[in-house]
From TrEMBL:
Its EC number is 3.6.1.55. One of its GO terms (molecular function) is 8-oxo-7,8-dihydrodeoxyguanosine triphosphate pyrophosphatase activity. This is 8-oxo-dGTP diphosphatase. Residues 11-136 form the Nudix hydrolase domain. Keywords: DNA damage, DNA repair, DNA replication, Hydrolase, Magnesium, Metal-binding, Mutator protein. Coiled coil: none annotated.
Length: 142
């Protein structure tokens, strides 16, 4: 699908969670084989289903993908991005409280990162990394 065709479609809502430890480290996941942008790093999450609110989708996706139960999440930022395969509206949440240790339930690699150093990172995420670094620094200073 061309980028122009993607723009003419309604964006797909996606819930994205940033698990942030007390020291400011965040969890990044690598997209598995067979998905667009396979091998790219992203913050975990997934598509919001019909009739589902964004926070409910975030909680469901984290349980399905990582075996983690999100206890609290605060909205952080929203971003629209047009990929060659889809026009997405990403709803980012900061999650500081959860139960369970992340597990690779869908075969994806994941890594805790202080300063995000994994590569390549999904294009829609790249512009947020500087703001996230400031948020992490605030968390460490608190």
């Amino acid at each position: 699908m061309s980028e122009i065709a993607s723009l003419n479609k309604r964006p797909i809502d996606v819930a994205v969670g940033i698990l942030m430890q007390a020291d400011g480290d965040v969890l990044m996941a690598q997209r598995p084989s067979g998905k667009p942008y396979e091998g790219y790093w992203e913050f975990p999450g997934g598509k919001v289903e019909a009739g589902e609110d964004v926070l409910a989708a975030l909680k469901r996706e984290f349980l399905e993908e990582l075996g983690v139960r999100v206890l609290e999440a605060e909205p952080w930022v929203g971003v629209e991005h047009v990929y060659p395969h889809a026009h997405v509206r990403l709803h980012f949440y900061i999650c500081r409280r959860w139960e369970g240790e992340p597990q690779s339930l869908e075969g994806q690699a994941f890594a805790w990162q202080g300063k995000v150093a994994v590569e390549p990172v999904l294009p829609a995420t790249i512009p947020l990394l500087e703001d996230l670094g400031l948020l992490q620094a605030d968390r460490i200073a608190a």
